Amino acid sequence: MIRRAVLGVYSLLIVVPLIVIVGGTFKTTPDLFADPFGPPRNPTLDNYATVLTGQGLLGVLGNSLFVMSISVPATLLLGSLVAFAVARLPKWPSRILFGIFALGLAVPAQAIMIPQYVQFERLGLRNSLTGLILVNIVVTLPVAVFILAGFMRTLPGELYEAAEIDGAGPWATFWRIAVPVSYPSIAATAIFLVVMHWNDLLYPLLFIDDPEKRTLPLALLDFQGEYLTEYPLLFTGVVVASLPMILAYAFLQRHFVAGITAGAVKG
């Protein structure tokens, strides 16, 4: 009963804000403040029209999709290559390589913002989607290596030995053996990366000044002013921004749990 009560309270903490946000997208500002928890009295789609056309959200949506469509596959490719090396190298080299990338999880992003800014300024990568793609790959690569290496380490050595007997080199073994077998873990990692890259606000806020290069999280800040916040428009922007993540999870959910628990138990 205690567990059910705790889960019930936890569910309310998630469901109630969702109801307020989704319902608020169909309300005007006075209606939202008058009855935030109730259904819309006069439902309207004006907020969606304003967000998608008047606020230029479609353009920044394209920027976010462009950054994510390159950075996520690139991170998965590099992460799976490193994870394969961690799984196949001898004991101490494998630990050293894994430890180097594990250190990337221990360093707070705020601790290296100033060096990153100076370096990007010197390289001409500030106010550039290319620079944003590079920094996303570098920052999230340790996460991908951590998850994928945990799975690839559990793969039986007989798989690799059979590939070597058939004459497959390391590159062929990686593409024909490791990647297909690791698909559930790769799919789970892809979900994490999509969420991290899509919701990233810190680095666009740090590196992007050009309004034409803004990403979606950065554009949502326009709905929040110093003295006034347009909550219906902000809620609408949040709903629009959440759709790609919902679609990604819907397509990959059957691999999510399997991918996360893979490598947790051995044998």
TrEMBL record:
Topology with respect to the bilayer:
Multi-pass membrane protein
Which InterPro entries would you find in this protein's record?
Answer: MetI-like, MetI-like_sf
The answer on whether this UniProt entry bears the keyword Protease reads no
Return the SUPFAM superfamilies for the record: MetI-like
Record's subcellular location = Cell membrane
What organism does the record attribute this protein to?
Actinoplanes couchii
Main location class: membrane
Q: Which spans are transmembrane here?
A: 7-26, 65-89, 96-117, 129-152, 173-198, 231-252
Q: What is this protein called?
A: Sugar ABC transporter permease
Q: Which domain of life is it from?
A: Bacteria
The signal peptide annotation in the UniProt record is none
Q: Which residues form the ABC transmembrane type-1 domain?
A: 61-252
Q: Which CDD domains match?
A: TM_PBP2 (cd06261)
What keywords would UniProt list here? Cell membrane, Membrane, Transmembrane, Transmembrane helix, Transport
A Pfam family annotated for this chain is BPD_transp_1
What family does the database annotate? Answer: Belongs to the binding-protein-dependent transport system permease family.
